[in-house]
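Fold this complex.
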Amino acid sequence: KQEVTQIPAALSVPEGENLVLNCSFTDSAIYNLQWFRQDPGKGLTSLLLIQSSQREQTSGRLNASLDKSSGRSTLYIAASQPGDSATYLCAPLTGTASKLTFGTGTRLQVTL
Amino acid sequence: GAVVSQHPSWVICKSGTSVKIECRSLDFQATTMFWYRQFPKQSLMLMATSNEGSKATYEQGVEKDKFLINHASLTLSTLTVTSAHPEDSSFYICSARSRVSSYEQYFGPGTRLTVT
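Structure:
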């Protein structure tokens, strides 16, 4: 059974800092991995999807890396802004079951 | 593109009544839709997976007679919470997978259910 851990659980940084969110998963037989953001009381917004054959995926100030064999992914946010404040969730798609398994998320607060 | 809507966005109902939540893929055809629930400060837990035209597959511990799922078309799935009780109060989120995208899932905005 896939288990996903995200570290840290919460993070507070001043505006402009670069930061890294970590995600680890126990079953490396994944098809892809998605990073999402969730604002309070809202649904999920897909940020990046990285295929199992890829090492990196970039979108604007966001960069996601994937090391499938070691069961790790990181989300790098450059030049953080207050609007980046949200909970960030990673979710690998397990190949055999074709289901997303969610971590508990990292709650990010970017202060002025 | 790839927009998923849910209706209603929030609902309050009395204990013992049933509530139906709709999930629609607005600009793509979804062969598979998923229903999740999320308790405060917790992550999403998959309840069931539904494929268009077939019965839903429920996760372990989810009562299929209580949470009725219908996926009648490639753009619509419904979740009916039958005989709702206060412990069913939660945030319900649906997602849809496009038949052409590489397994990317698109999520709806969620429905807040409060059972009094």
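Chain B is about 0% helix and 55% strand.
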